[in-house]
Amino acid sequence: MTFYYPVAVGGPVTKIVDGMVAEFEKAHPDVKVEAVYSGSYQDTIAKILTAVKGGSAPNVAVALSTDMYTLIDEDAVLPFDEAAGADAKAWFASFYPGFMANSQTGGKTWGIPFQRSTIVLYWNKEAFKEAGLDPEKAPATWTEMREMAAKLTKRDANGNVTRWGVEIPSSGFPYWLFQGLTTPNGVELMNAAGNKVAFDKPEVVEALQYWVDLSVKDKVHPTGIVEWGTTPKDFLEGKTAMMWQTTGNLTNVRTNAKFPFGVAMLPANKRRGSPTGGGNFYMFKGSNPDQQKAVVEFVKWMTTPERAAQWSIATGYVAVSPAAFETPAMKAYIAEFPAAAVARDQLAHAVAELSTHENQRVAKALNDNLQAALTLAKTPAQAMKDAQAEADRILKPYP
Description:
The protein is built from 18 helices and twelve strands.
């Protein structure tokens, strides 16, 4: 069977996946898995849809959980319910409900959680100490984050910033980071059916105003667009004291930080909360019954508690089931590195990542307008009004 996996070829993650595939083949000698490394998530969905149209879809792939509606609308995927057999319900129930929110719709299960994440706040304990803050205490609220960031921002004699208080990336996945502000402000960006959005609600505008104010009013956050890829680099080089990033960066930060750091849930305003993120396994049409059976075997094998724990420890992604956190390996890991439990604990407050019909177009409408507000081309209210109008237009065919 063919397995598309979203990573640029090379690097440690490829080695880990190769190792897992080889182990699976050893345990299942009748199944041959051809792993195709398909680039970024965006590259992967594009390659999948091209392959589907050309009649050569993979049998299984990891794609964003938010690609679910797109894959259903393209008539590309099979639900797992039937192929998983008698224990399907028990299997689906073994995953965290927060991860299943982006995996099920219309009474069917289309995705199985694999490399899933939430957004967390990383902080540099050395910088906190230097600024006279308690190095063991992260900001718990929006007000605290703003006040702490003011103390943490450093300027040289000419007034140039040498260290920012906080960085929230606004390239790559702006809508996702933005959900880290809208969720704590008590609002969800879309409905469960994926055909309505709430971009112009007052709470959404207020969340965007807070983000803009961090740079314009408080001057504790870089102006303009903050690059997704350079934020961890800025944090590791001491150019920002706090950053918002995926838990998928946990192992990278742990390996490369030359200073003690902490990991915390996102600051609350009206409540705690973060969107979930990351990739699910999908099974594709065109697979014969034997291949479907093999796909289910493979996906079950890759997500067993032991392997979910192994994957989480190796990458920093959140282990996808409560049972994974009960394994001896995970218990030992968390005892030694308690930061790894933060994302799990935040799942109790998590919401589904923005996912709608025509998801890429809807997300682009929101991303473009978020960036327009952050670069001061539009006010937050105008930006969200425009994003809502564009999303309504795109979603009109899906009543």
